[in-house]
Amino acid sequence: MKITAVTGDITEARVDAIVNAANSSLMGGGGVDGAIHAAAGPQLLGACTEVRRTQYPDGLPVGEAVSTPGFDLPASWVIHTVGPNRHRGESDPQLLANCLHSSLEVARLLEVESIAFPAISAGAYGWDMDEVAEVLVGAARQEADKPKNDGIAELRFVLFSESIALAFQNLI
User: Fold this and answer.
1) What is the pLDDT of residues 44-76, one digit of tens each?
2) Which of 9, 16, 33, 92 is the catalytic position?
3) What domain range is 152 assigned to?
4) FRET label pair with 14: which of 69, 114, 124, 154, CA 20 to 30 Å apart?
5) Total structural domains in the chain?
6) Chain-wide mean pLDDT for the chain?
């Protein structure tokens, strides 16, 4: 699995699946979550409502992942994961790593070949960008080193600024 980091808008990524840094309600929000919901169109909210009704009535737990179609996005799939919120005392790096691991488990079930990740838990969830980069790149390397990678050829971190992308690139 090739791991890269680029500056860009994840809603425009030409990959099979993008990862949404969702909140546990799956009903949209700010930042990456809001941008993905806006770009995917209103059908995404309907799909998330159905996931809540049928699979996660109490909300998606931190570190787990679930998929919906991408609707109006270039990506066929959106994989939603809830990052740990440092403001709520969720400061264990393993919770953040689990977001990547769980998202890739879902991606393998969907048989995607390429996937794009944002900087999960950075920003509103209070994690330092360098720590997010270290944890997520480390988790991606663990996945890439697995003997059987099940078809995921590319994991791309798509980050909204050059400085953030550089932090990821330096670790890759």
Assistant:
1) 999 999 999 999 999 999 999 999 999 999 999
2) 33
3) 2-171
4) 124
5) 1
6) 96
What would the pLDDT profile of 117-137 be if each residue is shown by its tens digit? 999 999 889 999 999 999 999
150 labelled catalytic: no
What string of DSSP letters covers 39-74?
A: HH-HHHHHHHHHHHHHT-TT-PPBT-EEEEE-TTSS
* CATH number, position 36: 3.40.220.10
Strands 114-117 and 154-159: parallel
pLDDT at residue 102 tops 90: yes
CB 159 within 8 A of CB 118: yes
Distances 58 to 1, 25, 153 between C-alpha atoms, Å: 34, 8, 34
Contact 118, 32 (CB under 8 A): yes
Per-residue model confidence (pLDDT) at position 149: 59
Please, what is the Cα angle at 8 between 141 and 46, to 5 degrees?
90
pLDDT at position 157, please?
Answer: 98
